[in-house]
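2024-03-11 09:14:02 INFO worker-7 job=invfold-0412 stage=load source=structure_tokens
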């Protein structure tokens, strides 16, 4: 993804989302946060980059920022449920995201 972003003069926003999620999955949360913030800016109506951002913020110990990012999700999708979203997938990654979203203040 880094090469695609570097080579493409106008990278699509989802490139940033994939790169940020990848950084988060390997534990590079500082890079993940920076990249996911850019993805969220470029995808203002999508909750997906914000979900990953919340998870990276929680794992970085930035709970206040994670709660703020969580509010941005519910501003976009008022009925959003971390549990319902995560349970629509069966991966350990989504379970990890769910736990981090709950830690950030989402209700079960």
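2024-03-11 09:14:09 INFO worker-7 stage=emit residues=108
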């Amino acid at each position: 993804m880094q090469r695609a972003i570097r080579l493409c003069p106008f990278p699509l926003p989802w490139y940033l989302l994939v790169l940020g999620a990848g950084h988060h999955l390997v534990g590079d949360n500082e890079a993940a946060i920076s990249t996911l913030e850019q993805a969220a800016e470029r995808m203002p109506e999508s909750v997906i980059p914000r979900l990953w951002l919340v998870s990276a913020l929680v794992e970085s110990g930035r709970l206040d920022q994670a709660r703020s990012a969580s509010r941005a999700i519910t501003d976009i999708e008022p009925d959003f449920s971390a549990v319902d979203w995560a349970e629509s997938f069966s991966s350990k990654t989504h379970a990890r995201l769910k736990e981090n979203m709950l830690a950030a203040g989402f209700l079960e």
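2024-03-11 09:14:09 INFO worker-7 stage=report msg="The helical segments are 2-7, 13-25, 29-42, 48-59, 63-76, 82-87, 92-103."
2024-03-11 09:14:10 INFO worker-7 job finished
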